[in-house]
Design goal:
Chain lengths: ~325, ~400
């Protein structure tokens, strides 16, 4: 029996801060060097909706921010699942997740956002390399649900290092698992041999694999291939954990936003009302023009170019990277 | 385990009857007071009218699906009168791609491109209306004229014939209700109007630089299919005109009947956006939408069985005293944030920022020239099964 529960969203204060701070509710080793984390709202609220291919920003207690694809069940509104590979050559984010983060800990979360969305197609060819399986996992489930014709080619170093192989086993021979130590490199040319109308190719994994996929798809129509490259988040620019100042350009008023208040709430505290609606960074009602300073975008609306361009922010969830933001208010 | 559940309170009123459409507020109050869930015996459907439950059901797309239709008709058993909307009458995952494309083409970039032209268009329209005299019908001259001028331009459909959008939209929103006299009234012209709008959604009749063309460009990139593109354009045209017309009408009526709030807007023109949202809360141009349960859903002490239609009273939620202080007052100092007049969740109005921009442009132009605005004659409601609509709002203005 399903129970209609209050979402508590915009009706009362405090919900936005809760939505951006999630608790680790489960931690499972799913392959050698890969842990899956489940995240939930500490107060049991619904989490913002997402679509396959989406990622979240994980803001670790030490202030580092990393992006991880959501690989759980989008029909479950109360839990996010991510898979984290320990990257020995990484900058410490994945090591922190593996060595320090425990069930019960709180983490900051931005998004979800999706720049790798599943488009409608009659047929899908999925290519995953290693931890690149994570965004493809919900896509596979969705393609199957839609009754599309689909295949997954999943390569990795060793079978034991390949996450979610068990979950994929129920799809039978639609999934081809290719551990390198058993079978060498996956045969991309055979898999991507024949460009077919109405087919979309999705690939995620390390750069050499994606380069090879791109080469194998050179005779495919434009836009047939969609890839997500693992790129390190822009260096430095730590997300602030300290308070920051917001200057209202029209009145010259300066207010301080403490870590536990949203910019929207801080504005409201001093009587500056900004229209808002979802308070989760998904609807766009609370857009404010940024005249100076660097926003820490935590919304699900702006794409990467728009983020870099600056110029606006959604004050219900987004914060500041710089000491001060000047807003057109 | 079998658990006994009490039956919810019942209400025999026809929510689509003419007396309710003329003044829905007494029914809304009765439904809210009866409890969190009410059984509407006239159509054997369930009703949610309190803010908390309406909001919760709107965001719960898993249990309250839209794909069985957001009108009374249940698409599990009945064929829709037109191909179902890929946006409104669709659930994840099929809902994802059309929604994503529409959100992108109606996003911040589109608004920036439109802003200056729409402010100039609004000033020109207001100048022309005021030049004709100090008494006019705010519905026909402003609330209908402005969206019909700027929105189809932005989408990229030709000037000729665009007034057809109003009767077509009116029928579209009537058809979410029962097959009553309002639906029958629209049916004779339906084949002609449907054919007309379908022809306007084709790539070759859309201008090359509008929102419609950008939807087709998304189809070229494979973000949606070529079959989906005209239906997405149709959604824009059917959902984006009448709603804005009646949202603007509601705002103008509210300001004409609240002179203190008009003065306030004149003193602080930046309140134009807030005025529109407060009017959307206060009048809820879209009054109701149905959802269909995908499982047995417990609401309070009662259970809605799987597969049943649930009528969400957005208008009642937006005046629920459990959520809003003094909900019946139209007050620009109120923060209307969180109202469900645009819906909430994955189906929340994707064009709401466009509607706000239209309102901001028109109200700013009007406030710049008009010192006072008041009713000049009795107003006339327009009855529609889904929309809280106006037929006529005669006003008298003084310039200055």
């Amino acid at each position: 029996m399903h129970t209609l529960t209050s979402t508590d969203g915009p009706a009362t204060g405090g919900a936005a801060a809760d939505a951006a701070t999630l608790r680790v509710t489960a931690r499972t080793v799913v392959a050698d060097g890969v842990v899956a984390l489940e995240l939930a709202s500490p107060s049991g609220l619904r989490l913002p909706d997402w679509t396959p291919g989406a990622h979240i920003d994980l803001v670790l207690p030490d202030g580092t921010t990393r992006q991880y694809s959501l690989c759980g069940d989008r029909w479950d509104p109360h839990a996010y699942r991510i898979g984290v590979l320990r990257e020995e050559a990484g900058r410490g984010g994945s090591a922190y997740v593996h060595d320090v983060l425990r069930v019960g800990d709180l983490v900051g979360v931005g998004g979800p956002r999706n720049r790798f969305a599943l488009v409608p197609a009659d047929r899908y060819l999925f290519v995953a390399g290693g931890i690149g399986i994570t965004p493809l996992l919900p896509m596979v489930r969705q393609a199957d649900l839609l009754g599309a014709d689909w295949r997954l080619l999943y390569g990795g170093r060793r079978r034991a290092s390949m996450a979610f192989v068990d979950e994929l086993s129920r799809y039978g021979d639609r999934v081809e698992v290719v551990p390198r130590d058993e079978a060498g490199h996956p045969d991309l040319h055979r898999f991507l041999d024949t460009p077919a109308p109405g087919t979309a190719v999705y690939a995620c994994g390390p750069a050499p694999l994606l380069d090879a996929v791109q080469a194998a798809c050179s005779s495919w129509p434009p836009h047939a291939l969609r890839t997500e490259r693992f790129v390190a988040a822009e260096p430095a620019a730590p997300v602030r954990r300290a308070p920051f100042d917001v200057e209202l350009a029209r009145s010259g008023v300066v207010l301080t936003v403490p870590p536990h208040r949203t910019v929207l709430e801080a504005l409201d505290d001093v009587g500056v009302e900004v229209l808002s609606s979802c308070r989760q960074g998904v609807c766009g009602t609370c857009e404010v023009t940024v005249l100076a300073g660097e926003p820490d975008h935590r919304d699900a609306l702006l794409d990467d170019d728009e983020r870099r361009a600056g110029g606006c922010m959604f004050v219900c969830v987004s914060r500041a990277r710089s000491d001060r933001l000047v807003l057109d208010l | 385990m079998i658990t006994a559940h009490t039956a919810p309170p019942v209400d025999p009123t026809d929510p689509f009857g003419h007396d309710v459409l003329e003044d829905p507020l007494p029914l809304h109050a009765a439904l809210r007071d009866a409890g969190p869930l009410v059984h509407l015996t006239e159509y054997d459907v369930y009703a949610l009218a309190r803010y908390r439950e309406v909001h919760a059901a709107l965001v719960d797309w898993q249990a309250f699906q839209s794909g069985a239709g957001v009108g009374l008709s249940n698409f599990r058993h009945e064929e829709p009168w037109r191909p179902a909307s890929l946006l409104l009458e669709n659930d994840p995952p099929r809902h994802d791609a059309p929604r994503r494309v529409l959100r992108a083409v109606l996003g911040p970039g589109a608004l920036r491109r439109l802003r200056d032209a729409w402010f100039a268009d609004a000033r020109e329209l207001v100048d022309r209306v005021l030049a004709d005299g100090d008494e006019f019908d705010a519905v026909a001259r402003l609330a209908e004229a402005f969206p019909l001028r700027v929105f189809p331009d932005a989408v990229g459909i030709p000037r000729e014939g665009r007034e057809q959008l109003l009767p077509l939209g009116d029928h579209n929103f009537n058809a979410f209700g029962p097959p009553n006299d309002l639906v029958r009234k629209g049916e004779p012209r339906l084949p002609e109007l449907s054919a007309w709008v379908a022809s306007r959604c084709r790539r070759d009749t859309l201008s090359g630089d509008g929102i419609g063309a950008r939807i087709w460009a998304a189809a070229d990139r494979g973000d949606i299919t070529a079959e989906q593109a005209p239906l997405v354009v149709r959604s824009l045209l059917l959902a984006g005109v009448d709603t804005t017309v009646h949202g603007l009408s509601a705002t103008l009526y509210a300001l004409a009947t609240h002179p203190d709030q008009w003065r306030r807007l004149r003193e602080q023109p930046h309140l134009a956006r807030a005025a529109f949202d407060e009017a959307v809360r206060w009048e809820s141009p879209v009054q109701t939408f149905f959802r269909t349960t995908t499982t047995d859903v417990r609401v309070g002490d009662h259970v809605v069985p799987d597969g049943r239609k649930v009528l969400l009273f957005l208008g009642a939620a937006n005046r629920d005293p459990r959520r809003w202080e003094d909900p019946d007052s139209f007050d620009l100092s109120r923060d209307p944030s969180g109202h469900v007049g645009f819906g909430m969740g994955i189906h929340q109005c994707v064009g709401q920022h466009i509607a706000r921009l239209e309102a901001e442009a028109l109200l700013t132009a009007l406030a710049g020239r008009v010192r006072s605005i008041e009713l000049a004659a009795p107003t006339v409601r327009h009855h529609n099964n889904t929309l809280r609509a106006w037929g006529s709002i005669p006003v008298r203005v003084r310039l200055g």
